[in-house]
Amino acid sequence: MDFGLNFNQLSRSEKLQMYISNMTPVLNKKALFSDGTKMFRNPPEPMPNEEITIKFRTARENVDVVYLIWDGRRMVMDKFKNNRRFDYYERTVQVGTNVVEYYFEITSGRRTFYYNKIGISNEIQPYYNFNIMPGFKTPDWAKGAVFYQIYTDRFCKGDLSNDVVDDEYNYIEEHVSAVKNWEKYPAAMGVREFYGGDIKGIISKLDYLKDLGIEVIYLNPMFVSPSNHKYDIQDYDYIDPHFGVIVKDEGSPLAKGDNDNKHATKYISRVASKENLEASNELFAEFVSKAHERGIRVILDGVFNHCGSFNKWLDRERIYENHEGYEPGAYISQDSPYNTFFKFINNSWPYNGQYYGWWGHDTLPKLNYEESPKLYEYIMRIARKWVSPPYNVDGWRLDVAADLGFSNEFNHKFWKDFRRNVKEANPDAIIIAEHYGDPESWLRGEEWDTVMNYDAFMEPLTWFLTGVEKHSDEYRGDLLGNHEAFFGSMRHHMSRFNYQSLYVAMNELSNHDHSRFLTRTNRKVGRTASLGPEAANEGVDKGVLKEAVVIQMTWPGAPTLYYGDEAGLCGWTDPDNRRTYPWGKEDKELIDCHRELIKIHKSYQALKTGSVIFLGGGPMYLSYGRFDENDKIIVAVNNHYDELTMDINVWELGVEDADRMVRLIRTTRDGYNLEAVTYHSENGILRLKLPGVSAEIIKTVDNY
Predict the structure, then answer these.
(1) I need a labelling partner for 469 at 20 to 30 A (CA). Which of 46, 200, 220, 389 fits?
(2) 610-700 belongs to which homologous superfamily?
(3) Looking at residue 185, what DSSP letter applies?
(4) pLDDT tens-place string over residues 366-384
(5) Domain boundaries in the chain?
(6) CA 433 – CA 218 distance, rounded (Å)
(7) In whole angstroms, what is the distance from residue 585 CA to residue 587 CA?
């Protein structure tokens, strides 16, 4: 309000407001801070009935009282320390066995403010309260761990003898085919073409992954399945011999024009013979052991909402019919021991094809857990089996996890039992769900550990840096470079996580379901069927990809590379995003840049479990900080094409003007620079000049 120069001309309410303003100290809102990390909540993952200390930060001598509103009780917090810039308050409380919510109330003069997960507010906002789930711990090894997602058929070919052969069987009304040219672009309907990547191929590249800095491999489905993506599982007990070992290789492919898989004797021999299945499982166990020897963990993809029409329990393709060692499938006979595994619409046996499919797809029969205790226990056994010896897998990624079951209530019951089975078999295993939207009701310590982080990472980041939706299906110029939309979206969606889930969330730029991030940098809308695959390579900007990787390696969560992104792989959304890794034609400079950024990420605990604070931004640029008790790190990103000078409020991190800051890396369109340039702030502000399309990571000099 402009009160003007003549006090007598003001109204009574304006005079009162002026009096109140002059008598009330100005609250430094940017100094207020607390979160769920160890620095502000210790221990951050308390056990039931354990004491916990909650802390809060304000500007020095700036507030009158800080209250902790703990489970509805109002408690005064004690000022326990200060420095030149900040005061710190704390209160020790005891958790019980139930979820507890809390927030902060701050009084400054005659004003009262509230602080929650998204920051300062003039009113109480229960939706954004902090919360604690006593006893909910996520694996420490996964907090900030660097993941690498492998789509096995397209990563590396290690064994020619297990390749799918032309016409080996019929899949979705056409014969399958073997791709002879590793560099061929995937076809628009390419689910039935196979490139030959396998487990031995992955084993041959374990040293490459270790050198890159990878700590966890996440594998797309590995179990027996007729598709190259393998999200239509045929046998949950065995690794697909086409990825593993084919010891017994008898029979013949289908004849031209014959689409009856009863005659696909070569395929039947390969996937139903126990010799091949057991040998493939043994190779997989060997692979996991070799990965573990290199300090790399392994996560399997679990597809438990639905299976495939080839599945031995249904056997719509009649592959297992009359095969020794297999009981009749539910499609074959009403008397099948698997009859209740599926929800049939009528009683038209034998060969009953009337059953519920996921989203109506009869190739993806939905599993009927509610009416089948036998199926329920079978999958719980599978959950235990693969995280136990001799396989010793380190966790599960769960496909379309919120869709499982025929009701929301049953869905939650299932995942509670699933968690109990997994954690009893391997307490250090992680459970990561594929999920779009608010995951909060599954992240209360009884079901999932975390999710693939679309809403609080991939989506806001791709909009800010490229203006393109994650499938490359939409362009939004209003979101390109919109730092307020970026920070607002991040604040909101991050608030739906508790902190132990946020710091293990899978932060991806690309994956098997969405376009490659490098393609999104061309700001084009399209798919391979409409524009062709070459268009995905055109007009891309490696500088923007490097900006994205800088953010990925410095943002809360587990940074997850999709195979080949580090080598410059492009591609529209599925199936073009499933191109083969370009061995021998890699972008080595881009790989080296990834390696250096991964090294920085792994070097500082603040980048794994530290606090995050937004330091400001403007059109096409932004900055934020990560900090803990030991380190203060600044990240600055300039998405402009031109050079830009940024003023960054480093005082919010606790940086003093006397402190020296050193640049760890600068990325640009032309490359990256590791020169240790030194900076100083002035009046708490770092003035930073950045080239067009570049990013920097800067750290205070202590412990450098």
Answers:
(1) 220
(2) Golgi alpha-mannosidase II (2.60.40.1180)
(3) P
(4) 999 999 999 999 999 999 9
(5) 7-135, 146-255+264-309+377-601, 310-366, 610-700
(6) 12
(7) 7
For 186: left if phi > 0, alpha if psi spans -120 to 50, otherwise beta; the answer is beta
H or E stretch at 54:
strand 51-59
Nearest to 597 by CA among 661, 546, 668: 546
Structure tokens at 493: 């969606």
* 496 and 438 Cβ atoms separated by less than 8 Å: yes
Q: Which is nearest to 550 in space by CA: 663, 679, 630, 688?
A: 663
Asked whether 393 and 298 are in contact (CB, 8 A), the reply is yes
Q: Which residues contact 284 (CB under 8 A, 6 or more apart)?
A: 199, 222, 239, 244, 391
Question: Is the pTM value of this prediction over 0.90?
Answer: yes
CB 328 within 8 A of CB 256: no
Distance CA(569)–CA(532), nearest Å, equals 16
Instruction: Name the amino acid, one letter, at 182.
Output: W
Asked if 99 and 133 touch (Cβ cutoff 8 Å), the reply is yes
- DSSP track, 543-605: HHHHHHHHHHTTSSSEEEEETTGGGT----STTGGGPPP-TTS--HHHHHHHHHHHHHHHH-T
Q: Is the peptide bond before 43 cis (omega within 30 degrees of 0)?
A: yes
Bridge-based pairing state of the strands 73-76 and 65-70: antiparallel
pLDDT digits (tens, 9 = 90+) for 233-288: 999 999 999 999 999 999 999 999 999 999 999 999 999 999 999 999 999 999 99
